[in-house]
Prior knowledge:
Distance between the termini: 35 Å
Number of domains: 1
CATH superfamily: Winged helix-like DNA-binding domain superfamily/Winged helix DNA-binding domain
Domain HTH arsR-type: 9-100
Number of helices: 5
Keywords: DNA-binding, Transcription, Transcription regulation
Radius of gyration: 15 Å
Structural class: alpha+beta
Strand content: 5-15%
InterPro entries: ArsR-like_HTH (IPR011991), HTH_ArsR_DNA-bd_dom (IPR001845), Metal_resp_trans_reg (IPR051011), WH-like_DNA-bd_sf (IPR036388), WH_DNA-bd_sf (IPR036390)
Protein name: ArsR family transcriptional regulator
Helix content: 55-70%
GO molecular function, one term: DNA binding
Number of strands: 3
CATH topology: Arc Repressor Mutant, subunit A
Amino acid sequence: MDDPTLDDLRTSASRACALLRVLAHEDRLVLLCRLAQGEHTVGELEAALGIVQPTLSQQLGVLRREGLVDTRRDGKYIHYRIASDDALALMQTLHARFCA
């Protein structure tokens, strides 16, 4: 396998920095940690994490805009799940290092 070019490294570094910027917020990190365990509704996330509704919605919006989470509607409930394989892999590593 060929060594990556400088452009390849810079592109990868840019993607990693973008992901790390999103994760560098305690509420978003906690949300992703919970979502790494499976799909949850807003109400479930609020009850489990103690993040009040306005903050919760704002942070879920950031995660959604950045492509880290996706939604599924079931009646009046919206279910959130991690949509990014990179975010999921990073959350699993963080969990193993800091929460185990």
